[in-house]
Specification:
Layout (H helix, E strand, L loop, with lengths): L9 E12 L2 E12 L3 E5 L6 H8 L4 E9 L2 E2 L5 H7 L1 E4 L11 H8 L5 H14 L1 H5 L10 H13 L5 E5 L7 H16 L3 E6 L2 H7 L2 E6 L2 E7 H6 L1 H12 L7 H10 L10 H15 L5 H5 L3 H13 L15
Helix pairs in contact: 3-6, 10-11, 10-14, 11-12, 12-14
Length: 328
């Protein structure tokens, strides 16, 4: 699945991007690269700036500074229709279909830049990829289920035959079986030759299919590496977040995070899941033996602690709060 990540294969480059809405800055110096043929994943918590990043690339926010290049050409500040013409498509997180139009009409709107013959050919390709849409083609998009709407949104994104497809939280609010089918379709889209930039909260699923990945937190890139590397470091990243969200959780976890900061994500120190679990569990047990334990457990640390231990042990259990393993 992975490819050689070399400069001559870079299709999307974001350098020191500062962007937001009006005078409010959401992204603070974000830099990343996507190479042709990759699946690159961006994970992070709600409010981290993931959707703002995709909207900024697509010309839908206020760019304060920084440069965005697509296929070597600067697209910073260009309107969305001009960016689409370059070969880039965005499937947004919300309001991603026209509810008053039929399924077919939505697809036709996605292919408004092509001639009629090409349009019909691409609609047929979408129907082959998502057979359910063929059955619903005369139905209003507003009456579709959540999974069917997401299929339609992705299908409409494919109507321009993009070189790079950007997906914003495609699994949000969907049932587990639908999520499974959706990620399989993303994999097939990638195998058909389309580069994919995937923004997801479901870190476990997203990292599993990613060639490379970034972790975005509070508008800054906190971690980067291969999907496999970040899966191994998932628990350490969570431990780091506990410390910075709740200063009470300093004993043990702080030492663990300092060790992580001294070692790169590629360090063999954390290659052994059992060793990782032991370090994480030890740090967490130290954090919660303080007199402030009752106060601390009222914060997000209790949920994060459970997730940290589960990730380190390689467990696939869901926590009692209903959070799926690996969800940020």
């Amino acid at each position: 699945m992975s490819i050689a990540h070399t400069a001559d294969r870079i299709i999307l480059e974001v350098h020191q991007l500062v962007a937001g809405y009006g005078k409010s800055e959401v992204l603070h110096g974000v830099s990343l690269e996507v190479a042709a043929g990759e699946i690159v994943t961006m994970v992070g918590a709600n409010g981290a700036g993931k959707s703002t990043l995709l909207r900024s690339i697509f010309g839908l926010t206020d760019i304060h500074s920084g440069v965005i290049r697509f296929k070597g050409k600067p697209i910073t500040g260009l309107p969305p229709h001009a960016i689409t013409a370059y070969g880039l498509a965005l499937v947004p997180q919300e309001r991603n279909v026209f509810p008053s139009l039929t399924v077919r009409e939505n697809l036709e709107m996605g292919g408004f830049t092509v001639d009629r013959a090409t349009l019909e050919e691409r609609i047929e390709r979408v129907f082959e990829r998502f057979p359910r849409l063929r059955e619903r083609q005369r139905q209003k998009a507003g009456t579709l289920s959540g999974g069917e709407r997401q299929m339609l949104a992705i299908g409409r994104g494919l109507m321009t035959s993009p070189e790079l497809l950007m997906l914003d939280e495609p699994s949000l609010g969907l049932a587990p079986k639908v999520v499974e089918a959706l990620f399989e379709q993303i994999r097939l889209i990638h195998e058909s030759g389309t580069t994919v930039f995937l923004v997801e909260q479901n870190a476990r699923r997203a990292l599993a299919i990613a060639d490379r990945a970034y972790v975005l937190e509070l508008g800054r890139i906190r971690h980067q590496g291969s999907g496999q590397e970040l899966q191994k470091c998932n628990a350490l990243i969570w431990a780091d977040r506990i410390v910075r969200r709740n200063p009470l959780h300093t004993t043990g976890i702080q030492e663990l995070c300092q060790q992580r900061d001294k070692a790169s994500l590629r360090s063999e120190r954390y290659d052994d899941p059992k060793q990782l679990h032991g370090q994480c569990q030890s740090a967490l047990s130290g954090a919660f033996t303080r007199p402030s334990r009752r106060t601390a457990l009222r914060h997000s640390g209790s949920i994060a602690a459970h997730r940290c231990q589960s990730v380190g042990a390689g467990s696939a259990r869901a926590s009692e709060k209903g959070w799926l393993l690996g969800r940020w």
